[in-house]
Amino acid sequence: MTDCGCDKAKAELEEYLRNELAKTDAADIAEHIANCDDCTDEAHVGVVLTQAVQRACKETAPSDLRDQVLLTLRTLQSGH
């Protein structure tokens, strides 16, 4: 494998973290991240952010907030 460099690793980091890259591209980025402190830090931030979003998406909104949002959407739609 060859070092893909910081530019490619950072450009494809989100796809890498979501396992959306071809195996060879993912392996190149994994190798680069393992040997580059800056990209390791950025990958760590990406992982933490992704986990926080996943946790937030599992929570349900309070029913009164949901009702208010739906009422607002219906009001906006009826005006069009």
Q: Nearest-angstrom radius of gyration?
A: 20 Å
Count of helical segments? 5
Order of helices and strands: HHHHH
Unreliable runs, pLDDT <50, ≥5 residues?
Answer: none
Number of strands: 0
The CATH architecture classification is Orthogonal Bundle
Note the main sheet. none
- Helix/strand/pairing class, anyone? mainly alpha
The N- and C-terminal alpha carbons lie at a distance of 56 Å
Helical residues, percent: over 70%
What multimeric state do the chains show?
single chain
What CATH first level would be assigned? Mainly Alpha
| Outline | elongated
CATH topology: Arc Repressor Mutant, subunit A
Residue-averaged pLDDT, rounded? Answer: 90
- Domain count, please report it: 1
Q: In percent, how much strand structure appears in the residues? A: under 5%
Please give a handful of descriptors for the protein shown.
single chain, 80 residues, mainly alpha, Arc Repressor Mutant, subunit A, 0% strand
